[in-house]
Write a structure and sequence with these properties.
The protein is an alpha/beta fold and 423 residues long. The chain contains 18 helices and 12 strands. The chain binds ligand FNR.
Length: 423
Amino acid sequence: MSELGIGRQRQADIYLGALSGARRSVPVDPARLEEAASKRMSPEAFAYIAGGAGLEETIRVNRDAFDRLRIVPRVLRDVSTRDTSVELFGRRLPGPFLLAPIGVLEMAHREADLAVARAAAAKGVPMIFSNQASVPMERCAESMGTGPRWFQLYWSTSNELVESLVGRAEACGCAAIVVTLDTTLLGWRTRDLDLAYLPFLRGKGIAQYTSDPVFRRLVDQADEGPTNRPRPTLAGLSALFQLTRAYPGSFLANIRSPRPRTAVRQFLEIYSRPSLTWEDLPFLRERTKLPILLKGVLHPEDARRAVDGGVDGLVVSNHGGRQIDGEIATVDALPAIVEAVDRQVPILLDSGVRGGADAFKAVALGASAVLIGRPYAYGLAIAGERGVRDVLQNFLADFDLTMGLAGCASIDEISAESLAAGG
Ligand code: FNR
């Protein structure tokens, strides 16, 4: 870190950079960031990333809940040097931030997860590899050196596949497994439904599957069935083209083979298990020594049960409002969960985090860290790896300055006393 600290260094880079003619394409303001990204993506891609379930009330309340909390600064405390670092599962991180697992990043940028992995590693911020990634986890891990990474799991109907994915995550240096529980069914995503667009059907976002030995064996075994091919239309051909291109291997070999289509069918059958219950968790516990976190926990009784069952951490999340419309905001759910868990395990939070002050508020309410979601996908869409790096630097800088201005020199000094309820 520079003498100035993360925040002042970033301000200096931006203001002084402009004096020497540097132009910035990645807006700092979150609304302008989203708008700039929307111009770089197809309408389908932007709808998929920005959209939520139903009337998108949950997206709105996530923000409202942050907005209702107000920071009450304390003055005349020496905040000339500030330490924004936090320790999570034995590793020190530069700030209370991780990158949320976001699937199908190829819709934002052709380098997708690889660009994100490089940016995350450059900043020392953990990247949580999505189960629906566009690039296999091993390739991302390879590009990260010792940069921290975790793996997010969607519990498949095949336990053999679950085991294989977790084994791969361990082998490529992931430090934790995040099991996402709020997406055993896909939410009612109005924007995607109106465009009749689901990326997975075009072979996008299934790279963790097509690179997996268990999944590939299942594809080999799958009966192609009667080739009930619809009459070719332009839209159909375009979908087939995309699907074929997305499948690993040569395009020419794939276009003649039923495998890309079988893989998508197999994926749709296997990717999630709505019948999952608490009784399934020991299966995972017995197969990995890595810390296990549950993502999508919003009820204090579920939080307590998870901790009693040996889970190592929680992610308080409503999936960025993509699953249930009119759901509780995550910062509204946080205090009761913190109380129920009584600081026995780290609690992370996401959904609606758009700046350093949001992270400060979450930490004040008892979160150990927050996950950055859509904003980094927007940075990626605008400027690839550099865009993600810019977004990360902005979050870290904003947090550093907010913390100092609130009178806190380190994370430990942030507490519920730093907050008041606004009108
Ligand atoms: C997600 N999210 C997500 N979560 C997860 O566990 N696995 C995944 O593959 C995905 N994929 C995904 C795709 C897109 C386009 C979005 C926007 C989100 C949810 C994500 O991890 C996180 O919970 C939310 O993004 C947080 O909300 P905000 O801050 O982005 O509004």
